Amino acid sequence: MDASNRSQSEPDGTQHPPVTPGLRKPNRRWTPLPIPTIPTPPPNADNYRPQMPHSLPSAAPPVAPAPSDFSHTQERLRQPKQTAAEKLAEKFCAMEELLKEWPFDTVGDFLQILFYNPTRSEPDLRGTTHASAVSQFLRGRTSVRMCDILPLMYYHRASYPSSQAVNSHEQDLRFSTSIEPERILHARPFISTWAVRLVAAEARKQVGRMANKSSDEDEHQNQLRASTNGRRETKVVTWNDLLANFNMNRIHELFGLRMPLPIFLTEAMAAPKSNGVYFVRKRRPHPMIQVGALASFIISRNRYANAPLAMVFGVFFFACKVHIDVKRVFCRLGYSVADSTARDALVSATAADFVVLRTTVADAEEREVTEGFMILDNCQEYADVWEQGIGRQSQLKVGTAGTYVWADDVAPGAFDAKPYYDNVAKKERMDLTTDSLFDDIQWPHIRRVIPLHWTRVLVEFYTGFEPLLDGINKMFRTAPVALHRMREGRKTRCQPLGTNSEHSTELQGMARAVEDFDQQIGIKTHEAGKQLHWIRGDGASFANLHNLSTYMAPLYNFKNKISTPEIWHTGATDLNSTAANHYGPATSRDPSSLSRCSNVAGFKRPSNVKSCDYYPTVRNFTLIWTAHVLDCWRIFFGVDDLQKYLDDLAARKTLPDLPVVKRRINSVGG
């Protein structure tokens, strides 16, 4: 072999690779490679063949290796994989050695240095590795986070004192509100007490924000001013604040956004839970209870923070004529404002909204459109004199109350006066007969609505049909059953007018009452404009208004006034007519008479069928009609017991679904 290709060796026997001519020798020294010791083949190794490292696995069953005399001297380069228990034991051993040798006095001393947090004015004595490690851990960027460490500390057996410990009294200090956390030694009662202080401070802070005055541009005001002294421009309460913006569900959502911690705490205290999930009861729903409690907390912090609930309750108590002692009790509890504040709020709201009302009506007159209509009715109140005196006696106070209501979604030209006068001049009502009224009824629509009501009765009767109720309600709200439905979210805007002392049951009293209301609104009564003014009321008010428009037409007084009976009064009149025609004798045995049905159902028969109490009579009629409809369903199914028949269908899981119910509707409707 040539000398240039021979291996070179050091005096200590270290071998180097051969040097190739023309190549530069590297600057670094080569790491010596281990030379394996090749054992001598045994005498019985004639058929020995070493297994190739990249040979494919064979499909044949493995053959047990023959005993070999080879001696392997090369050590394993990779350690075997440790189990979780071995890793944990190794870490515990390392921890034991670390605690024996570290320079800290206690674990607390170590943790205090580890989580050292210098202020901006203090020098940071921590090293880069120290600061980075703590920062990564506190930011949750490590595999083990604070959510894993804190429960270990809180639930550790040593964090809670035993009954035989010297400080066993600390067992009763968990979530303590009277002991300072620094005086508690054990970790579990300390952490809970410290957390109570932290949560209480944050809850107080959030409630305090709701008690402060919000900006005038804020949609949700925290404070509603009932009056102002005029020295400073202050926004006072309006009817829009008291009526349109008041919604308990909306207030609950607002509280959840602006003070989520008190909402969370009160929900945990008030809400019922099933399978770990809160649910809302139909009676006494906990969101309403939360709103009432938190609203009283807010007004307790600031007596002017009455917007959520207190101002509305004060006006509500005034409208219901609640006794003054009841008002004082609820004011004391923080649920209502004082009675004087509620009265000032009513005066301020009426004065502020009257300005808006008159401006709106004047603008509508210029544009020759109608913005709303008026509802009026007579009112009476008997004023008793409880303390007798000279010139003092009980008396009946009589007057007329009115309300202006804004009309929404009105078609253009709907209240133009000229088409109305032209139709009146044609005198087409002279040809009006009972048959023509009968022909004007939309009978196809009636045939769609009545069977749907019958099906609703069946669905509400049996609990197994409860999943179908939403579909039935949706059919009522959509075409072709719903002909003209108000848009979703619409709320009626109204403006109460000042009550006068006129007798609306008299013709002259009605004239003076209407003139007073027109003056409040800003309408010129004695001028015939191009728009009709719609007034609604009960039967007597309708008759007087009709006579006024007839008698005063030549003088252009009340010429543009048109009146219709109010819906409730129309329904009450029809109810009295039905009762007078179908009740029959009180002791009637006719099963089709309302008297017989009322006696069976346990309802009291009206003493005067021509003037019934509205709501008890309506409940009576509804129950009797429902019973008759269910009996018709029993005949339709051909069974004797409707409840048992439906229970059998439910047991066989053959209750009809909504498409089948729709077909039944068509069959019932004929």
Automatic annotation (TrEMBL):
Record Pfam families: DUF6589
Boundaries of each DUF6589 domain copy?
Answer: 428-659
Q: Where is this region: Disordered?
A: 1-74, 209-230
User: Residue ranges under compositional bias (Polar residues)?
Assistant: 1-12
Fetch the InterPro entries from UniProt: DUF6589
The Pro residues compositionally biased stretches are: 33-44
Protein name, UniProt field: DUF6589 domain-containing protein
